[in-house]
UniProtKB/TrEMBL annotation:
Cellular location(s): Early endosome membrane; Late endosome membrane; Lysosome lumen
Statement: the UniProt record of this protein carries the keyword Repeat: yes
Protein's UniProt name: 5'-3' exonuclease PLD3
Reaction catalysed by this enzyme: Exonucleolytic cleavage in the 5'- to 3'-direction to yield nucleoside 3'-phosphates
Sorted UniProt keywords: Exonuclease, Hydrolase, Nuclease, Repeat
One cellular-component annotation, GO: early endosome membrane
Gene3D superfamilies tied to this protein: Endonuclease Chain A (3.30.870.10)
Lineage per the UniProt record: Eukaryota, Metazoa, Chordata, Craniata, Vertebrata
Length: 446
């Protein structure tokens, strides 16, 4: 009888403890240090000097993220990049804010004599060789990928793979301006060897082609992947159940199993049920660099289709700066005309202008929102490509796709964080609604 009573009491106590644990609110712990074993995904941004938001939405800087990755590195750093100008030697502006880029270059050079540093870069112009020469002299291995010969495109990718364990992917080039004078967004994933190994396969393709090889068809099995839009990698990120995969372009660079970047974008749009928010520098339904001119409407048609058939709310935040092509506004006005609340058609376009003082205007190729991401009610897509046809047909780019809709965690998902970034920018003083009579001259003067 005593045993029965004790067993009953124990059961009641265990049940009470379980209910207390399930019902008591718990405050999320602070983010763990990168050196912890938790798989951690972090949004990172570069906010240009002088750009200030009246918002609590903030994220660590890309500069700090790159420093963290180098600090974590134990054996190897692989970087795929468009170009290298981490000092302002190429601009001749003697700009003090170049110090962050110079710090990254100096640290990488110091590590080049201690770790394996490999860099796959688009065939550089002479003015961009100084950084690479320094790194090569310090012990880094560098291969230039002749994209013009391979695909008539460029290597536009921007990512890091560290120790086959940590990754960075996003819009920032290896350029000092990307850290202090250009608005950028990316993400870092720590302690995720499966994802880092998969991104490493994309790097190995660049490395292979940088050795003077032609594009194989098919690619050898060592370049293939199991993870794509149909069979994503399932794992916890920030202690939250996640479905993740990496996409790549151009199609000729995609080994067996790899989702092409364009198919990734179209799939994310097709899965959306409520909204699609897009922030990219360039949006053109054309082959932007092809002659004679060619219309290319894959993404544009998909947006119109989901807005009409599924009544999905579409928002595009597109950059406007000195290098914006006037024809882009013409196409955007056409897309923005698909707005009729009575018919439940809701596509809206805003233009984002990064302000510049006279001194900042002297620095070439700056003061622009260089973001390349999309967020829906289900998915966060963080890429490296502008949105015109050439980037998906001929140019080397990549993207990380994350779905955390199954999350029951009180911690914010990557999707909700990216949505907050978009809404901060959309509602900011730097965002202007596109009207049918608006022109570039007006926009750049306001």
């Amino acid at each position: 009888r005593c045993l029965i009573v004790l067993a009953t009491v124990a059961t009641v106590l265990l049940t009470s403890m379980a209910l207390y644990y399930l019902l008591t609110p718990r405050v999320p712990s602070s983010p763990p240090a990168p050196s912890s074993s938790l798989r951690l995904i972090v949004l990172v941004e570069s906010i240009p000097e002088g750009l200030e938001f009246n918002s609590s939405t903030t994220h660590p800087s890309i500069f700090q993220a790159w420093l963290n990755l180098m600090d974590e590195a134990q054996s190897s750093i692989d970087i795929a990049s468009f170009y290298w100008t981490l000092t302002n030697e190429d601009t001749g502006t003697h700009e003090p804010t170049a110090i962050q880029g110079e710090t990254i270059l100096k640290t990488l050079a110091e590590l080049s004599g201690k770790l394996s540093i490999r860099i796959a870069v688009n065939s550089p112009q002479e003015s961009q060789r100084l950084d690479l020469r320094l790194l090569n002299d310090s012990g880094a291995d560098i291969r230039a990928v002749n994209m013009r010969e391979l695909t008539s495109g460029i290597l536009h990718t921007k990512f890091w793979v560290v120790d086959k364990k940590h990754i960075y992917i996003g819009s920032a080039n290896m350029d000092w301006r990307s850290l202090t004078q250009v608005k950028e967004l990316g993400t870092v994933v720590y302690n995720c060897s499966c994802l880092a190994t998969d991104l490493g396969k994309i790097f190995e393709a660049y490395w292979f082609l940088g050795g003077g090889q032609t594009i194989p068809s098919p690619w050898p099995p060592s370049f293939s992947t199991l993870y794509n839009k149909d069979t994503p990698l399932q794992l916890p990120l920030n202690d939250t159940p996640s479905q993740v995969y990496l996409s790549s372009s151009p199609p000729s660079f995609c080994a067996t199993g790899r989702t092409q970047d364009l198919q990734s974008i179209l799939s994310v749009m097709d899965d959306a049920q409520s909204f699609i928010y897009i922030a990219v520098m360039n949006y053109l339904p054309t082959m932007e660099f092809t002659h004679p001119r060619r219309y290319w409407a894959d993404i544009d048609t998909q947006l119109r289709q989901v807005a009409y058939e599924k009544q999905v709310k579409v928002r595009l935040l597109i950059s406007c700066w000195a290098s914006t092509q006037p024809v882009m506004l013409t196409f955007l006005k056409s897309l923005a005309s698909v707005y009729n609340p009575k018919s439940q058609l809701d596509i809206q376009v805003r233009l984002f202008v990064v302000p510049a003082n006279p001194k900042q205007k002297e620095i070439p190729f700056t003061r622009v929102n260089h973001n390349k991401y999309m967020v829906t009610d289900k998915i966060a897509y963080i890429g490296t490509s502008n949105w015109s046809g050439d980037y998906f047909v001929r140019t080397a780019g990549s993207a990380l796709v994350v779905n955390q809709t199954a999350s029951q965690s009180p911690a914010p998902t990557v999707q909700s964080q990216l949505k907050a970034v978009f809404e901060r920018d959309w509602n900011s003083a730097y965002s202007t609604p596109l009207t049918q009579h608006m022109d570039l001259k007006y926009l750049l003067e306001i």
